[in-house]
Design a protein that fits this description.
This protein has twelve helices and 14 strands. The chain is an alpha/beta fold. The strands form four sheets. It has a six-stranded parallel beta sheet, sandwiched between helices. It has a three-stranded antiparallel beta sheet with strand order 7-10-11. A three-stranded antiparallel beta sheet has the order 12-13-14. The structure holds nicotinamide-adenine-dinucleotide and (2S)-2-hydroxybutanedioic acid.
Length: about 325
């Protein structure tokens, strides 16, 4: 007998990321090849958005995915989050050229008040929420505060795209394959202040700074390339990253549900418990492992150099500043 379906709510389902994400969820790449899924597809009520959503749903139907059991198309968030096991909060405005992600905070922040409340009221009891819409750390903070009955550990924001980008850069420089790069932690904010930690990363099992004997590159071009990758894609495409973001969300959810292999960690922005000097309550990116039962843990006791400390502190200061701008949305 097949398993009961996992119900997945996706906001911004007719957007760029939604278009790249939905077929991958429906074909089993997020929850596994024997796990049926039901999709609650949420868009804004504008006629154009709902028409586009109908088109996306037609395409999903036309794929005849064996694992896709049901679709609900709606602009009503109470309906959209009803009984969902996972809430993937993608829907929000992307930045354009020349903007920083936190320039979106006023426009996008308020979206996550209503969505947090709707998740609190209507989602399944143990619903997990992942925020992708930018600025994703602070939007996640807003959603979490507006869902006081949901455990804080059920909220995360996505820095996996940054981890994947950092792995690709290190592998390219070392002449390795990106699968050789492990324990690649992004610390802090999904922003231009994030710190990709080359000191704790490993390449082919060796410390990153031994495998790449070029400290100037690691401290300079490497960090800058990862921090600025989103902007570089916007400059090149005229649109922000989409299928790489969808791919990172597949990785993020799959790896929160799967026991993390020994020797590996993943970057997830979660509610700080004060680890590594990050003030408790901020949504900040950490190295995380999962145990396969839905629980995750911040990896303790990694060495943090003075160089790393300064950069983590700078990113955390930015998160605190973002928080101060949206304090009134925290309920
Ligand atoms: P997009 O403009 O193509 O699509 C966004 C969709 O969201 C649109 O269809 C829009 O109608 C919908 N939407 C807006 N407000 C909504 C609401 N309140 N409820 C439901 N739907 C709503 O944008 P995109 O390229 O898909 O990007 C979406 C977001 O993801 C942006 O904020 C972008 O900056 C962010 N992003 C984050 C990462 C990351 O790594 N965390 C990576 C890429 C993009
Ligand atoms: C990214 O990192 O590609 C996204 O956050 C989009 C952006 O605004 O950079």
């Amino acid at each position: 007998m097949s398993k009961p379906a996992i119900r997945v709510a996706v906001t911004g389902a007719a957007g760029q990321i939604g278009y790249a994400l939905l077929p991958r969820i429906a074909s089993g790449q997020m929850f596994g090849p024997d796990q049926p899924v039901a999709l609650n597809l949420i868009e804004i009520p504008a006629e154009k958005a709902m028409a586009a959503l109908q088109g996306v749903a037609m395409e999903l139907e036309d794929c005849s995915f064996p694992l896709l059991h049901e679709m609900v198309l709606t602009s009503d968030i109470a309906t959209g989050f009803k009984d969902c096991d996972w809430a993937l909060l993608v829907g929000s405005k992307p930045r354009g050229p020349g903007m920083e992600r936190n320039d979106l905070i006023t426009e996008n922040g308020s979206i996550f008040v209503g969505q947090g409340k709707a998740i609190n009221a209507h989602a399944a009891k143990d619903c997990r929420t992942v925020v992708v819409g930018n600025p994703c750390n602070t939007n996640c903070l807003i959603a979490m505060h507006n869902a006081p009955d949901v455990p804080q550990a059920n909220f995360s924001a996505m820095t996996r795209l940054d981890e994947n980008r950092a792995k690709a850069q290190l592998a390219g420089k070392a002449g390795s394959h990106h699968t050789d790069v492990t324990t690649m932690t992004i610390w802090g904010n999904h922003s231009a202040t994030q710190y990709p930690d080359f000191e704790n990363a490993k390449i082919g099992g060796r410390p990153g700074r031994e495998a790449i004997d070029d400290r100037d590159w690691l401290e300079g071009d490497f960090i800058k390339t990862v921090q600025q990758r989103g902007a570089a894609i916007i400059k090149a495409r005229g649109l922000s990253s989409a299928f790489s973001a969808a791919n990172a969300l597949i990785d993020h959810v799959r790896d929160l549900r799967t026991p993390t292999p020994a020797g590996e960690t993943h970057s997830v922005a979660v509610c700080s418990d004060g680890s590594y000097g990050v003030p408790a309550g901020l949504i900040s990116s950490f190295p995380v492992t999962a145990d396969g039962s839905g629980q995750w843990t911040i990896v303790p006791d990694l060495p943090i150099s003075d160089f790393a400390r300064q950069r983590i502190d700078a990113s955390v200061a930015e998160l605190q500043q973002e928080r101060s701008l949206i304090e009134k949305l925290l309920g």
